[in-house]
Amino acid sequence: MGRLTLEAYAAADRHPVTLMLHNIRSMWNVGSMFRTADAAGIGEIILTGYTATPPRKEIEKTALGAQLTVPWRHFADPLEALSALKAEGRKVFGLEIAENSRSYSSLQPADYPLVLLVGNEVDGIGDELLAQCDGVLEIPQYGTKHSLNVAVAAGVALFECVRLFLREG
């Protein structure tokens, strides 16, 4: 299957995508997103607000060790995190069903490096944070439910971000 060793993965180039988790309630969701971030080969995870940080057994249960392979940082204040990420030259995209959102498959080469911001399982991304985003991406919904689990949505969007980057690269 071509799996990398821990040493090879640590030395490998990562895709210019950062996942930012804000006020995620479920530590199992946090762990799932670490695992997905590892599988997608993204650069790092940013944890903000009351999102739990490793080490926590609940995170480890679903991360399966990815909390050790994906670089991460914690900021109590999400606005401070966004400011730091933008100062590093990254564009920030919220993943949310919102007015003026665009398809998650519409990213262009100029959008990289990027930050994908996901919010709370119940409330999503607040207006204050959405206002700081360079854009808002939306995953089309075709059924009766108008949302996905945050970890599932992050996984769908992360792999699309990586696919689009590789297509252009």
TrEMBL record:
Single GO BP term: methylation
Gene3D superfamilies in alphabetical order: 3.40.1280.10
Span of domain tRNA/rRNA methyltransferase SpoU type: 17-159
Chain ranges passing through the membrane: none
Superkingdom of the organism of origin: Bacteria
UniProt GO molecular function: RNA binding; RNA methyltransferase activity
GO cellular component: cytosol
Key words, A-Z: Methyltransferase, Transferase
CDD domains: SpoU-like (cd18097)
InterPro entries in alphabetical order: Alpha/beta_knot_MTases, rRNA_MeTrfase_TrmH, SpoU_MeTrfase, tRNA_m1G_MTases_N
SUPFAM superfamilies associated with the record: alpha/beta knot
UniProt cross-references to PANTHER family, sorted A to Z: 23S RRNA (GUANOSINE-2'-O-)-METHYLTRANSFERASE RLMB
Protein name: TrmH family RNA methyltransferase
Organism: Chlorobaculum parvum
